[in-house]
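Intended use. Records such as the ABC transport system permease protein entry shown here are meant for training and evaluating sequence-to-structure methods. They are not intended to support clinical decisions.
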Amino acid sequence: MAAPAMRRVSLRNLAAHKVRLVLTVLSVVLGTSFVAGSIIFTATISSAFDGIFDKVAVGVDTRLSPKDSQSTGIDESVVDQLNSRKAELGINRVVPRYSAPVTIAKADGTALQTGGAPSIGTAYLPQDQVLSPTESKLYPGGRAPVGTGEIVLNKSAADKAGLKVGSSTKLVVARGDSTPQTVKVVGLVDLPGDTSGYVNVQLQESVAKQELSDGSRAAYVEMSAVPGVSAQQLSDRVSSALGDDYKTQTGAQVRQEEKDNVNQFLDVFNYILLAFAAIGLIVGTFIIYNTFSMIIAQRVRELALLRAIGASRRQITRSVLLEAFVVGLFGGAIGLGIGIGLAAILKAVTSSTSGLPTASLQITPTAIISCMAVGIVVTMVSAYAPARRAAQVSPVEAMRESATDGASSLRMRTSIGALLAVIGIALVLVGTSGQGAKFAATVGGGALVLIFAVVFAAPALSRPFVGALGRVIGRPFGKIGQLARTNAVRNPRRTAATAFALTLGLMLVAVVGTFGSSLKGSIDDTISKELSADLVLATSDQGSLPTSVVNAANNTEGVASTVSFRIVAAKVGDETITGVSPKGDLSAVTPYEMIDGASKSIPADGMIISEKTAKAKGWKRGQVIRFVSFDGTPADVTISGIFQDSQILDPFQMGDDAYGKLVPAGFQSDRLILIKAADGVSVNALRDKLTAATKDFLTVQVNNRAEFVGQASSQIDQMLAVLYGMLGLALVIAVLGIVNTLALSVIERKREIGMLRAIGMARAQIRRTIYVESVLIAIFGAVLGVILGSVVGIAVVRTFKDLGITTAVLPYELIGITLVGAAVVGVLAALWPAVRAARTNPLEAISDV
């Protein structure tokens, strides 16, 4: 048979089965739309950032910054050196820059939230002193700040805060011993690169130098070159003059670095979005495979007739693959359109809720090609096995309409599934024998093998499970229930394939739910056992607090003791290590135990370390460790003791004097403050007093222990919400898969349904039969998924024990909701196929040969 004739047969077959075509295309669309949407959205945000960073450091020929990003800045002596060597190096102007995180109040007195965008204070520079021609361009009616108590604010932040020229507000610098200041807005500025949510508070330069640093350091230094000296030449000269202790860049290099940094962030965001697409495509692949398997099973006589009149096996395979190509092409094209809409929605949401900038949608060739390629390839790969299997059936055997799912085939699948299950369980057990990434990866490998075990063994499992479940659920429906159970177990491969999409989706839900429940349970247990503080002070955005907050807390009536935790990051040799310097009696707020060293007190120039840290680094009590700050300042710290490993305490707890050597006073800040109430003082009453005492600091939250635990749990819930959103896509596709399979099953059983209608079965009874059958399949898939997901979830949790997840907690409520939801899903998925079946004309169906 000629190839053109086979192509016409394939295309006419698609046209003749429009409903089947739509259902198959839909499963492709859901996956490919996220591929297109993620690529278009990240390209759009990247374009917006590129537009912003094209305006950064304009007019700057060379920027000098600390070599280490965690350094406190450039010392004033370096600025003096550059000024003294201007002529020698070819420098025209030297501009030191000062900056620090700040918070400003809105017109109503509450903190201005940025939605994740930076909120920083900088120095205001007059137009004749700046290097960028567009910087510090004031709106009419404003002026430069003079002295303390006056600020210039960027226009977008002022609009969001309800402030204008002449408005008074509160300003807090989030480090040092800064106290809340009342300031007046004297000018508004339109900044180049201003993004949604970004806040820039500009102070007079001399004020900024004192308020935003320790008075002797600049965050970085910008320079312009004299005529005849290029930016690269100036950068090279400055680098040679100052040595390797600093980073020198041209303005173009600064802009490129900013773009590279944001693109790294966008890559992570893109991976999250592509994970949505991957889950959708994985689940969709099984549905497409199942769909083509059923379609070919229904067309076996048609394909056999083609073979009988001369079509070769290769032509039959190509004919089915052509249909898959058309489905993939349509699915990819529609997915691209939906992806563009999805990107537009994401753009609108992020522009209103975060600090991300916006730009026009970037519909790139990469997005178009990727979307179309994924749709076509996934569909053709899914269709290949059914196509090849159909081509291998001999014409005579096919004409007999013999069952294609033989017992020998089922036995072989079950044997392979059992073998894979043993291997998967062994890998999971090996993974749970230790902690860390390698063991977690082993559990992941075992989970993957178990998924394939389910693929092979599920048909054999479906018969006894669905049969037993059918007797329970079908009993109230009498003969209709029996018929539904018979239909569900008649073709176990089809039942298992239909249920598998739901199995995979709910397995992932169970894994994520178990991990989240265990993480929250571990936090609850840890805080209950290891935290004896009554109240916790922290910022609403998990940022830093100025050291003056703890002073306000200490001056509050009813406070017995406070312990503030300050982050210490420094180098020991070539390694950067991070710990904490607690200020106050640590033992008063957490009952830690010493295992080497009698005293719990931390010497001012010493530290105590955890047992795990001592073993990992080989440190011992009495040993002197040299810490070096990122500015090169050394501090010799003596280990005074070793404490028992604690989930709530950092690897080391450093004394106050040692901390002061490593972190200058102007850069010190607190991450957390624990409060102990005096005897007889009500915790709730003290909380009210502390709230009033810290109100002017704008972002301080005062929580009791239960609220502190709840805050941590809410952050986990936010993370899980994103994951559940991803998994929701898989479940939507799984529901569509059940709809698809049931609809095709109705077509396959058309004559059977017609016969039932002819002997007196009512339309309502036909519908109930389909409903019950769908519920049986959905519950079977859900139970498999929940069992598999719970086992894998517990195993994953055990591999993260060293990271603080000490308790494995199954999400029983989620599991219960899932199983009930599966039954509901079964009914919903069966609505349309059931109506379609009930409308079957008995005479037409019986005469359909």
